[in-house]
Amino acid sequence: MTETMEIEQERHVLVIFPHPDDEAFGVSGTIAIHTGRKTPVTYACLTLGEMGRNLGNPPFATRESLPDIRKAELQKAAEAIGIQDLRMMGLRDKTLEFEDDQKMMNLVTDLINELDPSLIITFYPGYSVHPDHEATARAVVRAVRAIEESKRPKLHCVAFANNTLEEIGAADIHYDIRHVYDKKLEAMKAHISQTIWMLKDLEASVAEEGSELHDRFNYEYFWTYTFDDKDKVTDIKS
Amino acid sequence: MEPILPEKVQELINKFAGQEVYLHMETTNGAYASHFNEKFFSAGAYIRNAKLTYEHGKIVGDGPFRVGLKLAIGWVYAEGLTHYGFDESGHLLMAGHDFDGKLAVALQLGTTPFK
Fold this sequence. Notes:
The structure holds 2 protein chains of 2 kinds.
Chain A: E1 13-17, H1 22-36, E2 41-45, H2 66-80, E3 85-88, H3 101-115, E4 119-123, H4 131-145, E5 154-158, H5 164-168, E6 173-176, H6 181-190, H7 192-207, H8 212-218, E7 219-224
Parallel strand pairs in A: 1-2, 1-4, 2-3, 4-5
Antiparallel strand pairs in A: 5-7, 6-7
Helix pairs in contact in A: 1-6, 2-6, 3-4, 7-8
Chain B: E1 2-3, H1 6-16, E2 20-28, H2 33-36, E3 44-60, E4 65-71, E5 74-81, E6 83-86, E7 92-97, E8 103-110
């Protein structure tokens, strides 16, 4: 397995994702390690995943009942990984890229001003596939970029587009989260409406030392966002 | 939700005809379709709380079902509908769930706005 590094001690970690369960797969181990050290972690979840398609056949939920189900799952997942400050920001699934860009940026700026995080975790713009992920990532990059360079929090991003490796290379941050994997699994299980399809197969495969799934779920990977010529996020058009 | 009983759903469609209703309609193949299969052409459409009045509506087919609503100067229709039910506000919910249990299409209406 790739070499891993120690997770730095942070003052406050701000996690910003658009959908309940976005936190579970890629970063819940890292979060659990921070909360285990009593580092304050705020998770701003922008929507309730209202447009989720896994409703079952026969259906266990409807388009109208899904938001409340996912809200309860999100609260359970947050509890599993020790998040005490969970914020549900009230936007609607699949609409973020159509929101006013300035409003999206201000939402992030307000959180930064209030919490003064030393680290922000979100998606990597351009390499996070879902339009809501991309809109979230752009808003975060714009908000952080507007801060004077010496005062900017670190920005660790999750990327999983098919062209990630060839375009921006491998993640520069690898964390070994095996010792908190049970908490991560608990967070994934909390989002049962979204994960029931995969969890059964997953648990067995993840346990298999050396398998691809074992590595995918026992290690977490981030790309540090740098505000240089790699920064492709445009300014907001007025 | 329950599997669609066409006679029952037809009665419900009739009940909402001729009055102002709020409509939710969506169709989608999911935001990840082109990620998992780059040859897949992803498309979808979504409208929530459109306010309209239909003159009459029909459910047709042998299942999955099709529903069409005739407006004064237009149409609404959806295909692939498999289930129906109600939410707590009494909105009529019709949905099409594919073989994997994923929502493929929804057509919902009622006399009050959706949340």
